[in-house]
Amino acid sequence: MPAKYHRSVFINAPFDHTHWDLFHAMVFTVMDCGFEPRCALESDDGSQVRIEKLFGIVEQCRLGIHDISYTALDPATALPRFNMPLELGIFLAAKHYGNPRQRLKNCLILDSEPYRYQKFISDISGQDIRPHQRQPRLIIQLVRNWLRSADKKIAVPSDAAIWLHYESFRRDLEPTCRRLGLQADNLIFNDFIFAAGDYLRTIAAT
Amino acid sequence: MKTVKKPYREVIIPRRPGLIDRAKWRRAMREVIKQRLEGEREQRGQGKLAHAA
């Protein structure tokens, strides 16, 4: 079993600016626990069909975090966004129909409030859906505890320790970006994970 | 009873292309962390002095 597959986490979450803090907390926790975050934002190849890219990433990840909280109607079209439930469906189907390696898949499904999902995606009622209440602190706890049980071979930091790392990272990110003429909220996904990973290695060494 | 210590996690930094100059980023971030730690140390020192006085 390749270690890369075992420790890769597909992140299916809203890429909307109103959800950046939740998304960043999720990605940071995955990295602090020693796993590799993967998501559709990691490659920007206009020649690649989006769904094919998603199939590829889902296939390469044993683990998946699916945040289905972003179901509000789009003000421009008055229609809901269905990308997150679709990607959750792809992940569950890969686990169900896939080869023995794919059947090892394990996922964490998050929503904003308890039992809310039953009103719009009742077919997943048998699954264990965790409410994050749009709180980064709670997301860190949920993701950390799930990763802890998803791979018992490695020791991960406590959620309180990850929260402290995340807070200090957020505090140091702003002045670092300012020095380089960048905006902390506009970092692309690949730059954010580089910054978070480099930060975690640096504080571990100091 | 024998206790087996689990290996502590190693942070993975994926090698994917980004937009920032990574060498410059490393230098800038280390400088920011250093300044923050020095500031915190100084504050703790002043706190101790105030407490002693």
List the helices and strands and how they pair.
The complex is a heterodimer of chains A (206) and B (53).
Chain A: H1 3-6, E1 8-12, H2 20-32, E2 36-38, H3 50-60, E3 63-67, H4 83-97, E4 106-111, E5 129-131, H5 136-150, H6 159-179, H7 189-205
Parallel strand pairs in A: 1-2, 1-3, 3-4, 4-5
Helix pairs in contact in A: 2-5, 2-6, 2-7, 3-4, 5-6
Chain B: H1 22-52
Terminal CA distance of chain B reads 51 Å
The residue-averaged pLDDT of chain B reads 84
Q: Which descriptor suits the 3D outline of chain A?
A: globular
Q: Oligomerization state of this entry?
A: heterodimer
Report the biggest beta sheet of chain B as strand number plus sense, adding barrel if it closes.
none
Main sheet: strand order of chain A: 2-1-3-4-5
- Alpha-beta content class of chain A: alpha/beta
Shape of chain B: flat
Report the structural category of chain B: mainly alpha
How is this structure best described in words?
- The complex is a heterodimer of chains A (206) and B (53).
- Chain A is of the alpha/beta class.
- Chain A has seven helices and five strands.
- Chain A has a five-stranded parallel beta sheet, with helices on both faces.
- In chain A, helix 4 links the parallel strand 3 and strand 4.
- The longest helix of chain A has 21 residues.
- The relative contact order of chain A is 0.16.
- The mean pLDDT of chain A is 91.
- With 53 residues, chain B is mainly α.
- In chain B, 58% of the residues lie in helices and 0% in strands.
- Chain B is built from one helix and no strands.
